[in-house]
Amino acid sequence: MKLSSFLFITTTALILWTGFLVYKDTNDPSKRSVTNVNYDLQESIPSSILFKNNEEGYHFGRWKFPPKDITFQEELVYSPANVWKNNLMTKKWVYLTLSNPKYFIAFAVVQLHYVGLAFVYVVEKENPTVQYHYQHKVPLGFGVKMAPSPVEGCTNYSSSFMHSDHPEISICYAPIDVYRIELNINLTPNDNSFQSKRLIGSFAVNIHETLSFSFPLDNNKYRPAFVVKNSGMFVNGQMKFGEESEYFEGLAALDWTKSLAMRETMWNWVSFSNTLQVSYLQKGSTTPEISKSSVGINLSTRVYDMNGDSIENALWINGTVYILPGVEFSVPKEPLKENWRVSLRNKNSEEKIDLVFTPYGSTEEHTNAKIVVNEFVQPYGVYNGIIKLIKDSAVIEIQVVDTFGVIEDHHAIW
Question: H helices of 220-261, where?
Fold first, then answer.
């Protein structure tokens, strides 16, 4: 191991361990438990997720649109414990995918404070096993700037913090409910028979109804996770990939997260967007209405669960969000080679989710420094299957056919 790597890992370990001790001493379980949270999807949203009286903790719930003020208590009140929690325990990331018939583009900016991370990859769907990618870590999060809210400001990544005014990745909220995205980054293929290509892109993602929620981790009213998920959003723009310049029009998906994450965190996750055939059968009718619609989905387990069902499971049809029930993942022994399966937990339900995912490639991270562990595998590939839900006296059925998306298995000690 290089001396620089050893010093970085040792310093990180000491910081995290000291922070853990400080945090542990400031939490009395008898004073922090959460009861009677309403997770029905709400039209009205609080102005802030933090109650004015800090002793009450946070607003927890699910909303169709995110609150603007997502300030955590640790950012307002100075104490040694709050400094540790705000600077080391708070995890933030913004992740997006853009998909059209030709390209699948995924990118993320991550701030863990002791390290920042960014990745971008592009897949040409005609040759999906070839991935053009970029991934870089920045010590102490230098070069990473996170927006204060999903509806305010910019999230930027610069590989050199000395040139942060020219970010390689920029994700900015515009007041007309649009994310403006700028990408300018060189990507390396995973196959040496192909040449590197520079991606230069300018995109506008139109925001529709979201699944926004605040969740008490460890049932602790002082330990929130604030998350915005969205999928099936219309995106357009201009891009140049290598020597090819073209207009881009497709669908986008979003994961915007700010969390006082648990020391050990695990999850499985599904995300995709596509134009698919949707069937609506109204109660009392024998003839369904069939149409092509923009469809997006977000599914997970093991991280924001209530009684075994994740509160972040949702489906979007033409911009309208619908809550989905709990699912279970069948993760294969060889996740980059074998099919995955995602199905409904409740086998007796009249509703149905049955998806088979076939991987083509992946982005991944494997770090085991004992006190810091990150085992992250996110294959990209195609989904096939069926989704059936019952909403407002109508049966909605979606045939999922060769739909590009991602699936994930993640275990972190951070």
Answer: none
Burial 279-303 (b: 16+ CB within 10 A, else e): ebbeeeeeeeeeeebbbbbbbbbbb
Distance CA 278, CA 290 (A): 6
10 Å Cβ neighbour count for 335? 19
Is 71:50 a contact under the CB 8 Å cutoff? Answer: yes
Q: What is the largest CA-CA distance in the chain?
A: 72
Beta strands in 112-168 (DSSP E): 115-124, 131-139, 144-145, 154-157
- Phi first, then psi: what are they for 163, rounded to 5°? -125, 45
Nearest Cα to 203, choosing from 53, 97, 50, 330? 97
d(Cα 55, Cα 32) in Å, to the nearest integer?
A: 9
- Name the residue among 282, 21, 66 with its Cα closest to residue 179: 66
List, for the chain, all residue ranges whose pLDDT scores fall below the cut of 70. 1-31, 53-55, 161-164
Sign of the Cα torsion 13, 19, 21, 24 reads: negative
Judge residue 195's burial from the number of C-beta atoms within 10 Å of its C-beta, 0-12 exposed, 13-18 middle, 19 or more buried: exposed
Counting every residue, how long is the chain?
Answer: 414
**Cα 50 off chain centre by:** 22
Q: Are 356 and 382 in contact (CB under 8 A)?
A: no
What whole-number distance in Å separates Cα of residue 90 and Cα of residue 349?
38
Residue found under tokens 């942060």 = 164
pTM of the model: 0.92
pLDDT tens digit string along 205-259?
999 999 999 999 999 999 999 999 999 999 999 999 999 999 999 999 999 999 9
**Backbone φ and ψ of 13, nearest 5°:** -60, -45
Gyration radius of the chain over CA positions = 21
Q: Which two tokens stand for residue 229?
A: 């998920």
What span, in angstroms and rounded, lies between the C-alpha atoms of 181 and 154? 10
The SS3 call for residue 296 is: strand
Given the structure tokens 């403006």, which residue do they identify? 180
Q: Nearest Cα to 296, choosing from 251, 329, 250, 327?
A: 251
Which residues, 6+ apart, have CB-to-CB distance to 192 below 8 Å? none
